[in-house]
Amino acid sequence: MRQFLLGFLAVLSAPLLAQTTDSSFSPKPGNSRYMIRGYADANFIAGEGEISFGNARLVPLFIYKQSDRLLFEGELELEIEDGEVKMALEYANFYYQLTPRMTVRMGKILVPFGTFFDRLHPSWINKLPTVPLGYGHDGLLPTSDLGIEVRGGAYLAGMRTNYSVYLTNGPRINDGEEEADEIGMIVPEADIDNNKNKAFGGRFGLFPFADQSLELGFSAQSAKLGDKGSDFEDIGAFLYSFDWTLVKTLPALGGRIDLRGQLNFVNIDNRPYEVLEDGSLETFDFDNKSKTAFYQLAYRPTFGNQFVQNLELVGRYSTLTTPEEAPWESQSTQWTLGLNYWVDWRTAIKIALQSDEVEGGHDSPGLTKTDLFFIQWTIGF
Fold first, then answer.
1. Where does the record locate the signal sequence feature (predicted)?
2. Does residue 212 sit within a domain?
3. Number of Cβ within a 10 Å radius of residue 251
């Protein structure tokens, strides 16, 4: 399948060379365009043992348009964390329009596994100051990676659809050499390609209603995780997810609802893991399956004065379950409730309460509860 996809992508990429003689490709000085977009946010966090102004971020998005078909986009994240300025490259890729309904991009891409990170991760789009369990830089789910992707849209039985197919370097597995208590855990963001295998995946979305208010999606990814030549070389992973989005104005409720969610499953090949800890060899043998989910509902009124219409109520419930008998076994739940005030369509002040409950885990084997209060000011530009 992967060999077929490589050939398929090569055929699709052929127009990249043929199109250079087309009149739409005009690299002459003055015909190209350059744009800076992005977002920024500032946070206040209060909880047990912490009352402070937290992380502040500037996330510029650089877009260079060479022609009507070809552009480059890249996003940097500049963040103040623990008194230090940290910089990360979120994504950077070339983008080419093969046909009016099909595009290809190559570089560091946002992995279209579900919809949250691919579409919702900017703080002015994310309706809450935090991300659901399983996401983020230390999560179990793919966020960004180096690779190539083809995406587009079509009609199926009169219904609008969209699709994405990609090849990336893929995730790796924690071998326990540096963190023995995380052996067997998937690491989605690998800095380098640790083997010759590539992650193969994609997403298919369907709009069953004519007004396109509802989208249903399915995503999947398959990859080998282990380092080349290591004992873990043949360990594979299969990830899949279901997502849904419903955005609709309901006169009976006097407002617009925004209902979103995603169910994710991470299945890794089973095998015994041996860890040398405190001078003794310990063996773990567990069913290496994890799952995580989030369910989010937002309501924004359409009645009353302008102040009322600028308010938005948001609630999100998230869960994360990791393998039983793994050294990192845990059961986590998270409730987040928020009230947003939209200064304009891309500027919001968010107030949120979040309650986390974690049972197990290598940091604390018992039950841990954490309550946090957030204020976030965010703007998209």
1. 1-18
2. yes
3. 8
Of 352, 342, 212, nearest to 296 (Cα)?
A: 352
| Residues whose CB falls within 8 Å of the CB of residue 100, separated by 6 or more in sequence, listed in order | none
How many separate domains does the chain show?
Answer: 1
Domain encompassing residue 117: 97-380
The beta strand positions in the chain, using DSSP E, are 33-47, 50-65, 70-81, 84-99, 102-110, 144-156, 159-168, 172-173, 186-187, 199-207, 214-224, 236-250, 255-268, 273-277, 280-284, 289-301, 311-321, 330-344, 347-360, 367-380
Give the list of residues 6+ apart from residue 371 with CB closer than 8 angstroms, or none. Answer: 47, 48, 353, 354, 355, 356
- Torsional sign, CA 140, 142, 146, 147: positive
Give domain status of residue 245, yes or no. yes
Q: Please, which residues have CB within 8 angstroms of residue 229's CB and are 6 or more apart in sequence?
A: none
Q: What sign does the CA torsion over 51, 52, 55, 57 have?
A: positive
Strand pairing report for 280-284 and 289-301: unpaired
pLDDT in tens, the chain (381 residues): 455 444 544 444 444 434 443 445 455 655 788 999 999 999 999 998 889 998 899 999 999 999 889 999 999 999 988 778 999 999 999 999 999 999 999 999 999 999 999 999 999 999 999 999 998 766 899 999 999 999 999 999 999 999 999 999 999 998 877 777 888 999 987 667 888 889 999 999 999 999 999 999 999 999 999 888 888 888 999 999 999 999 999 999 999 999 999 999 999 999 888 877 666 777 888 999 999 999 999 999 999 999 999 999 999 999 999 999 888 899 999 999 999 999 999 999 999 999 999 998 765 567 899 999 999 999 999
Looking at the DSSP bridge assignments, the partners of residue 354 are 336, 372
**CA 230/CA 298 separation, integer angstroms:** 47
- Please check whether residue 54 lies inside any domain of the structure: no
